[in-house]
Amino acid sequence: MLLRKSYQRNGRASSFLKWIVVDDIDFKKTEQQLQQLKEDEEKRLDEEKEKLCPKCLVVYIPKKQEFGHCVYHPAFVFSIEKNKTLTLNQAEQECILARLEGKDRPPPLIWICCGKEFAQAGQGCVKGLCGLPEELAKRTDIDWIQTDPVTVVQQSFLNNPLYQKKLHNIIANLEKKHKRR
Ligand SMILES: [Zn+2]
Ligand SMILES: [Zn+2]
Question: 23 CA to middle of ligand 2, Å?
């Protein structure tokens, strides 16, 4: 902290020195404080702007949202036909492709989080707040101006070790059953 010390000589009692410590901080903001104020203001304005939620893909305003507004599936989709894991966008593409090919049924795709069929699963099985998942928001190695948050979130859901393990167990159990037959 920057302190300016000054003193005043008392006219009537010249031997008496009165020290007045003037705290500079009130009227002289340091460079660092000004920078902080600027950042706070930018953050405040940013929270009033419309954004696309990378989890539920709905447009939201950070300042106006309430818990439960965001409904999404926190995992990935499994293609039974292709024995392959897919992100939300990839699963949607599979459905569009099936339609274009004239198939009367959507491909058998399952959300690993809740086990629901992709075409009938609706918005999601988990509720929360829109925006980046906490563990991704904390990451300082990602440049969010250059990177598409939707792609990063879908990849993180695809690689979620908890659901990868769940799928692995399901497949292992299926194989055991087939062997018993
Ligand atoms: Zn789900
Ligand atoms: Zn959301």
Answer: 47
